[in-house]
Amino acid sequence: MARRVALVTGITGQDGAYLARLLLERGYEVVGGVRRSSTHNDWRLRELGIAHRVRLVQMELSEFSNVFYVVRDTRPAAVFNLAAQSFVAASFRQPLYTASVDALGVTRLLEAVRIVDPEIRFYQASSSEMFGKVRETPQSETTPFHPRSPYGVSKLYAHWTSVNYRESYAIHASSGILFNHESPLRGREFVTRKISSHIAMFRHGLIDTLRLGNLEARRDWGHAADYVAGMLAMIEAADPGDYVLATGRSHSVREFAELAARAADLDLVWEGEGVEERGRDRETGRVVVEIDADFYRPAEVDMLRGDAAKARRDLHWEPAIAFEALVEEMVKTDLDRLDRNQPLL
Ligand code: NDP
Ligand code: GDR
């Protein structure tokens, strides 16, 4: 690629921050798409020390003219489409908005790419949520899809739209089917960061209990810093394609909570069943975890475990950070933030 401008939608999110850092390290000029808001939301970019090195432009994915002019005026070599209403639980309450941004937003962006310059390379942030009610385990690029939420359905539309623009217009469009990836920069409503931040607040005496939903759900959790390297590998590959990125290991929410508690010197013992279940600290007997049925979902994705053999083979991609190290990093970072009187964002 001759020109080295990368346009990253959703740059204020978790992946946007890690990807921007990686792109800068690799010599790209980074332009970040930010939706209009009354408050400036660049804490992740600041935490990684790169806020001053990226150029931010206003970009709202539900507005075609806005998307089109940004692509036309920035003339990127590559577009990484990370912007989305990304919280599955919220998609049940806001299905139309989720579809507009997560599904149609991708058509808007790909139309802009097609019209401005079909040589622009494109990465779509697809999701293991597309597998939903899984037909086989582990899940790979050839596993049939069965999404279980408006989010999953929207991402599936976006996935096939990316495939379609590749096949119809020869656009270098890749779809990364990424399994859950987390980090200290994860949003606080997602279960991993909810657990790490609440455990840290519990340790600091700032809250009484952590209220969770389904403890039995299993996810294939990796580290976001590893996964953005896979995104860049897809963009830089000679040919576009669809790739699963996953660790191949799956853990329950319960296991995540136990490990996170241990990283803060709490030893969880469980008692009761269903919504009556509690997790107490063995030493003090204090209740650390309670169940709150409000966090159950209308339709659940019970278990996900990915097979990233294709990415290993074709992209030489391999996740480096193990589950245990990820959990520890997340809890220690939140404890550290509180030690330094930083708000947990
Ligand atoms: P985040 O929720 O942290 O970030 C989402 C980003 O999208 C934010 O910058 C957000 O802006 C922006 N955004 C939301 N709505 C709009 C809109 N209407 N117009 C423009 N920008 C918008 O998500 P992640 O970083 O975790 O994930 C990145 C992408 O990867 C998402 O598409 C997600 O669905 C997908 N994905 C994530 C996985 C994961 O485990 N993290 C796994 C598989 C896929 P603001 O800061 O203003 O909210
Ligand atoms: P997910 O992530 O839905 O997999 O989507 P989330 O962390 O929200 O949920 C994971 C699992 O944990 C269960 N759970 C809870 N979840 C939340 N948020 N809060 C709770 O209190 C709680 N208790 C139990 C959930 O039911 C679920 O089974 C993430 C997002 O990043 C998507 O954008 C991305 O596409 C997928 O990962 C892959």
Poorly predicted residue ranges: none
Number of strands: 15
Helix content percent band: 25-40%
What is the fold named in CATH at topology level of the largest domain?
Rossmann fold
Query: End-to-end span in angstroms?
Result: 37 Å
User: Strand percentage, roughly?
Assistant: 15-25%
Bound molecules: NADPH dihydro-nicotinamide-adenine-dinucleotide phosphate, guanosine-5'-diphosphate-rhamnose
Structural class based on helices, strands and sheet pairing: alpha/beta
The total domain count is 2
What pattern of helices and strands is seen along the backbone? EHEHEHEHHEHEEHEEEHEEHEEEHH
The largest sheet, given as strand count, sense and whether it forms a barrel, is: 7 strands, parallel
Radius of gyration of CA atoms, rounded to a whole number: 20 Å
CATH superfamily of the largest domain: NAD(P)-binding Rossmann-like Domain
From the spread of the alpha carbons, the general shape counts as globular
Question: Major sheet: order of its strands?
Answer: 3-2-1-4-5-6-11
CATH architecture of the largest domain: 3-Layer(aba) Sandwich
Mean pLDDT reading: 98
Describe the structure.
- The chain is of the alpha/beta class and 345 residues long.
- It folds into 2 domains: 5-183 and 221-249 and 303-321, NAD(P)-binding Rossmann-like Domain (Rossmann fold, 3-Layer(aba) Sandwich), CATH 3.40.50; 191-217 and 252-302 and 326-339, UDP-galactose 4-epimerase, domain 1, CATH 3.90.25.
- It is globular.
- It is 40% helix and 17% strand.
- The protein has helices at residues 14-25, 43-47, 64-74, 88-93, 95-116, 150-169, 191-203, 224-236, 253-263, 309-315, 323-339, and strands spanning 5-9, 29-34, 55-58, 78-81, 121-127, 173-178, 181-182, 210-212, 218-219, 222-223, 242-245, 251-252, 268-271, 278-281, 287-291.
- The strands form 4 sheets. A 7-stranded parallel β-sheet has the order 3-2-1-4-5-6-11, with helices on both faces.
- The mean pLDDT is 98.
- Helix 5 packs parallel to helix 6 and helix 7 (191-203) crosses helix 11 (323-339).
- The longest helix is centred in the first third of the chain and has 22 residues, at 95-116.
- Guanosine-5'-diphosphate-rhamnose binds at residues 86, 88-89, 127-129, 179-180, 189-192, 194, 212-214, 217, 219, 253, 295, 297, 300-301.
